[in-house]
Specification:
With 365 residues, the protein is α/β, with parallel strands linked by helices. Among the domains are: 179-262, Periplasmic binding protein-like II (D-Maltodextrin-Binding Protein, domain 2, 3-Layer(aba) Sandwich); 276-360, 2-Layer Sandwich (Alpha-Beta Plaits). The chain is built from twelve helices and 15 strands. The strands form three sheets. Strands 1, 2, 3, 4, 5 and 11 form a six-stranded mixed beta sheet that branches. It has a five-stranded mixed beta sheet with strand order 8-7-9-6-10. Strands 13-14-12-15 form a four-stranded antiparallel beta sheet, with helices on both faces. Helix 1 (3-45) crosses helix 3 (74-92), helix 2 (54-67) runs antiparallel to helix 3 and helix 11 (295-306) runs antiparallel to helix 12 (338-350). The longest helix has 43 residues, at 3-45. The protein is globular.
Length: 365
């Protein structure tokens, strides 16, 4: 390729960039007009305007992926649009999002993936604080870990749902890549301790035993806290993700040390409001059944009759009676769908308690 050919291609890229920038700002102007319409409607209806619409954003991202013709990967394009929507939404009203802190945790990474980097994220000390922050409207939304593909359900999240009036309004999945991170001046031969959240340690147990069998392994409150400790002490290494390395200025002693390559954590988003159907949704609920033979079979029978797929069922102690349990259930469909309404009605006829936790778009990216 000649220098002239290269110059022509660069000129074409500059023209495309200029046109893209013009269209981005045009889109942002439309977002501002949307905000003005919502504000006027809210004043007339004496209601608080809703700027973030999870079902609408899920629909937009699905369309982005469906019409993508390459060469860019469809999910890569969707991530770009996610950030565009985040920036435009910030012009309407920046979102306040609570997550499980401190900075550098996978929950922070999940919050940024779901809401984009223009959202205002606020770290909380534990899962109960996330529920409290959203309940008191200190933050409009909260992001919570719900299950890991290798370590199972996060029971503390499940237990908080039992007594909360908040609704699930979204879900996302985050691939978990774990790294051994140290202070830039650390010497691997002089490590005294390796720290991480207990789940991260469990997810990299085999690798740690094979490579650092003599080093003390210590569970701490979060991977972010482990990264903070490693930044302050060259004798400590942290097992954490890439965001923790960035937040605390750490370097990689080893990368991708998780024992399973497809390690993934699923997160839920909570808020006060219920979400309309997006066209591809899930419903989560909690059910308490009578302690009698065949109770669970009878509970699941309506799903089979309606041809609806059960995606998750988990058992937790009811805490109201010894040896009594509640079931956390998830299945495809929205609670406004006639088939799902029939299922919920049959649940109510059979169970002691039925509580719909929310219907929400299935994770897109």
């Amino acid at each position: 390729m000649s220098n002239d050919d290269l110059a022509k291609l660069r000129d074409e890229i500059d023209r495309i960039d200029s046109e893209m920038q013009r269209l981005l700002n045009r889109r942002a102007s439309c977002a501002q007009e949307v905000a003005q319409v919502k504000m006027r409607e809210a004043v007339l209806g004496a209601a608080e305007p809703v700027f973030y619409r999870p079902e609408r954003e899920a629909q937009v991202l699905r369309k982005v992926m469906e019409r993508n013709e390459g060469p860019l990967d469809a999910k890569a394009v969707a991530h770009i649009f996610r950030e565009i929507m985040s920036a435009c939404l910030a012009l309407e009203k920046p979102l306040e999002v609570a997550y499980l802190g401190p900075q550098g945790t996978f929950t922070e990474a999940a919050a940024l993936k779901h809401f984009g980097h223009s959202a205002h994220t606020r770290p909380m000390n534990n899962i109960s604080e996330i529920f409290s922050a959203v309940q008191r409207k200190v933050c409009r939304y909260g992001v919570l870990p719900i299950e890991n593909s290798t370590e199972g359900m996060v029971t503390h999240t499940l237990d908080n749902f039992i007594n909360s009036s908040l609704k699930i309004c979204g879900e996302l999945e985050l691939p978990i890549a774990l790294h051994l991170l140290v202070n830039g001046g650390a010497d691997s031969a002089k490590l005294k301790k390796i720290c991480a959240h207990q789940q991260a340690l469990a997810q990299s147990r085999d690798w740690l035993q094979q490579n650092f069998p003599q080093v003390e392994i210590s569970a701490v409150s979060s991977n972010g806290e482990a990264a903070r400790m490693a930044a302050d002490d060259p004798g400590i290494a942290a097992v954490a993700g890439e965001l923790a390395a960035e937040r605390y200025g750490l370097v990689h002693l080893a990368s991708n040390i998780q024992d399973y390559a497809d390690n993934t954590t699923r997160f839920l988003v909570i808020a006060h409001e219920e979400i309309p159907a997006s066209g591809h949704d899930k419903t989560s609920l909690v059910v308490s059944t009578r302690n009698e033979p065949g109770a669970l079979f009878k509970l699941l029978e309506p799903l089979d009759k309606e041809g609806i797929s059960l995606t998750r069922i988990e058992t937790r102690p009811s805490r109201t009676e010894n040896w009594a349990y509640v079931f956390f259930m998830e299945f495809h469909g929205h609670h406004q769908d006639p088939s799902v309404q029939r299922i919920i009605e049959q649940f109510k006829q059979q169970a002691l308690m039925v509580k719909v936790l929310g219907s929400y778009p299935v994770a897109v990216i």
